[in-house]
Specification:
Elements lengths: L2 H13 L15 H12 L17 H14 L5 E4 L4 H16 L11 E4 L4 H4 L14 E5 L14 H16 L7 H8 L12 H10 L1
């Protein structure tokens, strides 16, 4: 991801006066000034993020969408987490924003439509998703606040609960805890086929050599 390119695109978008149709103003309520401020703050060394807060209806969502599009056009990936009741509003507003910036979808080289994830199970039922998610060229994730762990019952298939546990096991590994931790053990007891989470694990290599 090229952050300098993203900042440049954000500023270029802010400098545009009219929409792609040329009939309406692209920005209002001083949104262009906020976009430039966001770009300048994010480009500051050590800055991890910014908080934009103002009155309801002043266009914060559109400012965020300008940043999202800039990141996507610069090779980055995006996930936006919004209240479940606003998912489709975001989807519609994004469609309106893209049309105002780029014109008709038929004229766009890349489809920048969001992929809606309302629940954990939608990770496995949405045929439009590709893994890893970074390979979804131009697409980004629109996540519901209610996205959480799946409902588990007796005989629930492994995929319904293995991913969150695997993520926890990997996080433990990065914290210096060996892969054979309690999260890994849960997976192993429920049919996980791998002896370790890392094929280059020195500890497991030593154990294999000793067993030989």
């Amino acid at each position: 991801m090229n952050w300098n390119k993203a900042f440049r695109i954000m500023n270029e978008l802010a400098d545009r006066k009219t929409s792609a149709s040329g009939n309406t103003s692209l920005w209002k309520y001083g949104q262009e000034a906020t976009i430039k401020w966001v770009a300048s703050q994010l480009s500051t060394k050590g800055r991890k993020g910014v908080l934009v807060a103002d009155e309801v209806g002043m266009g914060k969502t559109r400012v965020v969408m300008a940043a999202i599009l800039s990141v996507l056009k610069s090779g980055g990936t995006v996930a936006a987490v919004v209240p479940p009741g606003l998912l489709y509003q975001w989807e519609k507003e994004w469609d309106d924003f893209i049309k105002s910036v780029s014109g008709s979808k038929t004229r766009q080289a890349i489809d920048y439509s969001p992929m809606l994830l309302r629940s954990y199970n939608s990770l496995f039922t949405d045929s439009s998703l590709q893994y890893p998610l970074s390979t979804n060229n131009g697409k980004w994730l629109l996540l519901s606040h209610q996205f959480g762990l799946p409902m588990l019952r007796n005989q629930s298939p492994l995929y319904k609960y293995s991913l969150p546990i695997l993520a926890a096991a990997i996080r433990k590994r990065k914290d210096g805890v060996h892969q054979r931790n309690r999260f890994w053990q849960v997976l192993k007891e429920n049919g996980w086929d791998y002896d370790c989470l890392d094929e280059n694990c020195n500890t497991c290599s030593e154990r294999r050599q000793q067993s030989c």
